Amino acid sequence: MSTIIDTLTITEFGQKLRAREVTAEQVTESCLRRIDADNASLNAFILVMADEARQQAREADRELAAGRDRGPLHGVPISLKDLFDVRGTATTAASRVREGHKADRDAPVVSHLRQAGAVFVGKTNLHEFAFGTTNEDSAYGPSRNPYDPQRSPGGSSGGSAVSVAAGMALATVGTDTGGSIRIPAAACGIVGLKPSFGEISTDGVVPLSRTFDHVGPLAQTVTDAWLVYRALLGGAIGRPPAPAPISSLRIGVPRGYFCDVLDDDVRTRFEEGLEALRRAGARVDDIEIRHARDVGPMYLHISVPDAAAYHAATLETMPERYTPNVRLRLEMGRYMLGEDYARALALRELLRREVDAALAGRDALAMPTLPIPAPLIGAVTIKVGATEEPVRNLMLRLTSAFNATGHPAIAVPNGTIASGLPCSTQLIGLHGQTDSLVRVALAVEEVQRETTRPRP
Amino acid sequence: MTIDSWLQAAIADAEKRGLPALKPVLEALAKSTRALRAADFNDDASR
């Protein structure tokens, strides 16, 4: 049975809060009730911070009553992937390797959220050390998809996505090394934004691959994701941007690798979404990114040795504390050769130039975020047409290229398929122009919302 | 080092370390490394 509920967006909450129709305490209590009701079955949270959240919410209400308004995130209940340091709590990374850890300070992004008035409801489950796409390998057990608890919510920020989709938080913050924000956003029917590489601080965040790690928001709408993104940057949030005029949009669709291996229902929904954009006046054309087909080997030969280097000491001293699959993949990284790492770095540069070229004269690239619907928990491989691929390879297939190139990318809900599972369109923007990508995403969200079925 | 000789050495080392489960993982890695080395972007020092 679905546990999806309709919750207030951050924008709606802000309006009601300032109209004195609702308090931060009330909406926080509502999120805590959802956690009480559903966390046992969905396993979204590793730590629920109920007392602290109530205290923060009351303080937010007191401040507002006294005339201090911290802006759009004032009093907003937010969850955090358990990779972020929050002072006084353990940063578990969903691993027994981190037993006994206690953060003595907030990560800078957590500090920025505090300054913006956010209320922290808890820390969310993830694939151990963010090293996986399904959330199955976690010392705290798998998170489950609210659309179908037999299925994965995606990963690695799986618990984060579940917390928003199931109304346990109004937004969340995740990390994305190969798609770990966009994949769970797509699997759970919400928005996930990976900003340009280097835009948001990764200090105080347990790394996976420092070459590819990004921090970003997951939320119910593109506007909400933008509000959290701006807060993560620090400083004033400002007013949300307006959607780009749809009739002037130029969108490139990279065929070949990005569209070769797609589940039939996913392909149909994606093409319907493109057709709706064309009907609304956008110019949509097909393009090719020649070396996209080499993304898989390139991604593997950089991300895995990066992760192995970070874990080398604990792989020697406490290997039994890792979940078996994560331990094996980390060990694999210790066998890779420098020559192949160098090849992968060279390919990354080439790919970056090819994506830049594909974006020349265009506002964004579009492709599905996930080539398959959310997989069943326990699935090892999935057949797509004539191809049978490991689940991990399929889930990373369309997202990891943009961790390598550093371009901003956003997953925007694109309705559901016949089975009731969510679909998602991924948009890629010009490097360093996350705001422009968000304007495109706002326009696409509007069109796709009009042409897709409502949530179950 | 060729991929075949690397794979042989890696599997032998994994077994010596008590990690026989690494064998299929290393074989999958070898497949990926072959693809990386065969890709047309690679440098050719003679040109």
Describe this entry's structure for a reader:
The complex is a heterodimer of chains A (456) and B (47). Chain A is α/β, with parallel strands linked by helices and 456 residues long. In chain A, 40% of the residues lie in helices and 15% in strands. The N and C termini of chain A lie close together (10 Å). Chain A is globular, with a radius of gyration of 20 Å. Chain B has 47 residues and is mainly alpha-helical. Chain B contains two helices and no strands. The radius of gyration of chain B is 13 Å and the shape is elongated. The interface between A and B is medium-sized, with 21 and 20 residues.
Strands, helices and their partners?
The complex is a heterodimer of chains A (456) and B (47).
Chain A: H1 10-18, H2 24-42, E1 45-48, H3 50-65, E2 77-81, H4 108-115, E3 119-124, H5 158-165, E4 171-176, H6 182-188, E5 191-194, E6 214-219, H7 222-233, E7 250-254, H8 257-260, H9 264-279, E8 283-287, H10 295-317, H11 324-333, H12 338-359, E9 364-368, E10 381-384, E11 387-390, H13 391-396, H14 401-405, E12 409-416, E13 422-428, H15 434-451
Parallel strand pairs in A: 2-3, 2-4, 7-8, 7-9
Antiparallel strand pairs in A: 1-3, 4-6, 5-6, 5-12, 9-13, 10-11, 12-13
Chain B: H1 3-16, H2 22-38
Helix pairs in contact in B: 1-2
